[in-house]
Amino acid sequence: MESTKTRSEATQRTRSVVFVGLTIAIMAVSAWVVVPLGPIPFTLQMFAITFAIVVLSPKEAIAAITGYLLLGAVGVPVFSGMRGGIGVLAGPTGGFLWGYLFGVAAAALFLHAVRTRLGMAGGKNAPRLTRAEKTAMTPLQRAGAFLRSFGVEIIAGIIFTAIAYVCGCVQYMVVGHVDLATAFLTAVAPFMVVDLCKIVAAVICADAVRAAVR
């Protein structure tokens, strides 16, 4: 029994390491897809990170974003435009990167806490419905469960994005020597609608992936 438990724990740890590594790779690739939009580049990072928040456990999500930032800090070209180094983190747009760390931590913990409290998949000790129980659910019950889960995950994505915005706006203001209004209009406002769309798309994709790997 103990041997079986040990093997199960080892398998789970290996799976977590693989998921974290894949997530870091996805974050890097998403950062390389750059569409110029003023002084702040438009990338798919918000999509990739929101996806990670929804799919991974809080520890895995935080480990992934921490690993991503550390790789970038030592010079690996994982940031937007295939850049890397401390200079990027200390530059005008570096606050968004630091904000990713705080945003992921807050959003992942929020999502885990709500899932646990509501007994949703992904929460601690959340009940796992059997195939028969899922089949027995009425269309209305299924729709209600989906909307509840979808809404909570969207809120988590918004929490992450809002924190990244705040950190990015503050650093852009300080490093760029501009006032708050200018920093907001330049570094945040042009991306709000696009980032909201990326959050919704990330949640939809993440739910599909979670359903496939359960």
From TrEMBL:
Assigned GO CC terms: plasma membrane
Any one Gene Ontology molecular-function term assigned to this protein's record: biotin transmembrane transporter activity
Keywords: Cell membrane, Membrane, Transmembrane, Transmembrane helix, Transport
Subcellular location: Cell membrane
Membrane topology type: Multi-pass membrane protein
Keyword Transmembrane helix: yes
Transmembrane parts of this sequence: 16-34, 40-56, 68-90, 96-114, 150-174, 180-206
Source taxon at top rank: Bacteria
Family statement: Belongs to the BioY family.
Protein's name according to its UniProt entry: Biotin transporter
Source organism of the structure: Adlercreutzia rubneri
